[in-house]
Structures are given as structure tokens and as C-alpha cells.
Amino acid sequence: MDLVGACRAFASVSERGSFTLGAAAAGIPQSVASRRIAALEQHLGDRLFDRATRRAVLTPFGRDVLPAAQRLVRLADALEHDARQARRRPLRLAVPDWCPPRELAHLDAEARDHDVVLDFRPAPPAVRADLLRTREVRAALAAVPADEAHWTVPLGVAAALPPAAPTVYLETLRPGRGAAGTRAPRVWLQPEDDVPHVRDRLVHLRDQLGLRPSQVAVADSLVSATADVLGSADLLLCSAAQAVELDLHWRPVGEVGLVRGFALATTYSDDADRLRPLARAIARCLGAPGEGEA
């Protein structure tokens, strides 16, 4: 038996003194109100209304239990109100600090269609992990190796001027003989790519190719890295989508395939279920070419 529904019908009818008016106030047909009250009477073991009169007149038993029924209805209403408010409470999500505002806005709008309100916390990878660990956010787009990822983003290098070849080989950056005093072109890593599964592979390739240690460097920010590239022959490690946004010319790297990997990490498993329908919108924020599944 629906105890709350039966108590709601009982309270509504008793307050209005009529099964017809009480049922209408409760938003149910009169026949449904009658069945619910009859079920409640059977459940409680006595009559709530005197059926000998045309009006809905309470029996002594009905008068005694009515206050408790009214309290139950009020508590149920308060529970539903609190649940609605809780669903509207923003779900804090740590995202890469380079995600395009337009795509984040579209993600936010789509989330609202799924009754989820997002509160974004843009941050680099290490900070996103700390925010989740300390529960300052309930979910984060964590930087992970490709084999652990829900979304993957191929990386290449971007330059201020269009490279002559469709693929850039980093061995072409190796300084020639007699270039000891000259500044060799650098490959700049933005903070997002200062993670072992990207940085260490690029450093290993640098050493294999005989490049100078300074030719692979981590920038303080995406802005500073881009500024260095715009004013020199340096290259920026980035995705193709980022290169378009920065008005740079992107090419894949010939010697190695580098990939950004992202996984949805949550404090509570229910949050992962709530965010799963947003996988495509998240992929667009990350510049992932596919439509990843969270």
C-alpha cells in the first residue's frame, strides 16, 4: 500500500469534508481517493469516516489518527522539496583549464536537460587530482595513459608558420655542427602535458635523437608557450583543435604517437551514472575526435 498517498487522500478529504472536493485537491479521481482511504482503513484496522452521512465526517478513530497522517504528508512534501533542491545543487567538476568556454557552456546546457547542474573548476592535471582527493570537487577529468582513457586526443606540434612537410620529424631540430652558440628550436609542453605518459616519452625521444636537453621544455602556461612559438621557430605540443584556436599550424610528429588520455573520476559512483549521458559533450570540450563513453 502507498501509505503516503493514502494519508494524503485521507487528510485532503477530511479537511474539505467531501470526497469529491478532497480528491480534486489531491489531484486524483474520486474513485482513487476512495480506494486509498479504504486501504488505509484496512491497514489501520478501523473506520476513518462515518459512511452513514452524505458528508465526509470523521469517526472518533479518524479524528485521533488525522494529526499523524497530516504530519506524514508534511514530512513527505518536505522530503520531496529537499530532494529537488539537492538535485539542483551544483555538481563540481574539475576540467582542464584550456577547455573552450563555448564547449563548456554547451556541456552545461546539455547537463541541465538531464537535471544536472555543473560547477566547473578549471585546473591543470595535478591540481584536478588534488581537488578530487580532498573532495573539493565531486568529479574530475583525470589525465591518464591512453589504455586507461575514456577519451583520447592525438597530439602533434604546431608552429607559427606552416611547416613544409605534412609530418614534422623532430630529428630535423637537431643542431648542426658549429651551432654550439645558437639557440636551437624548442618543443614546448603546456602544463596539461606535463604528465609522465606524455612528457617522459617525449624526453626519451629527445635523447634518442641527440637533441639538446633544453629543446624539450615545460612552459608555465599555455599562454606563455604560445607566445614563445609565435615569436620564433619553436613548436607547441598540442591537439589539432587547440592549434586552430591559437591560429597555429598543426602537424603530427613522425617519430612517435603521443596521446592525451582522459578518464572520468568521481567520488561517488552515482555521479558517474549522472554524467555518463554527457560523454559526447565532454568529448567536444576535450577536443576528442570520437564520441567517448564515460
From TrEMBL:
<comment type="similarity">
    <text>Belongs to the LysR transcriptional regulatory family.</text>
</comment>
<dbReference type="InterPro" id="IPR000847">
    <property type="entry name" value="LysR_HTH_N"/>
</dbReference>
<dbReference type="GO" id="GO:0003700">
    <property type="term" value="F:DNA-binding transcription factor activity"/>
</dbReference>
<dbReference type="Pfam" id="PF00126">
    <property type="entry name" value="HTH_1"/>
</dbReference>
<dbReference type="InterPro" id="IPR036388">
    <property type="entry name" value="WH-like_DNA-bd_sf"/>
</dbReference>
<dbReference type="InterPro" id="IPR036390">
    <property type="entry name" value="WH_DNA-bd_sf"/>
</dbReference>
<keyword id="KW-0804">Transcription</keyword>
<protein>
    <submittedName>
        <fullName>LysR family transcriptional regulator</fullName>
    </submittedName>
</protein>
<dbReference type="GO" id="GO:0000976">
    <property type="term" value="F:transcription cis-regulatory region binding"/>
</dbReference>
<keyword id="KW-0805">Transcription regulation</keyword>
<feature type="domain" description="HTH lysR-type">
    <location>
        <begin position="1"/>
        <end position="59"/>
    </location>
</feature>
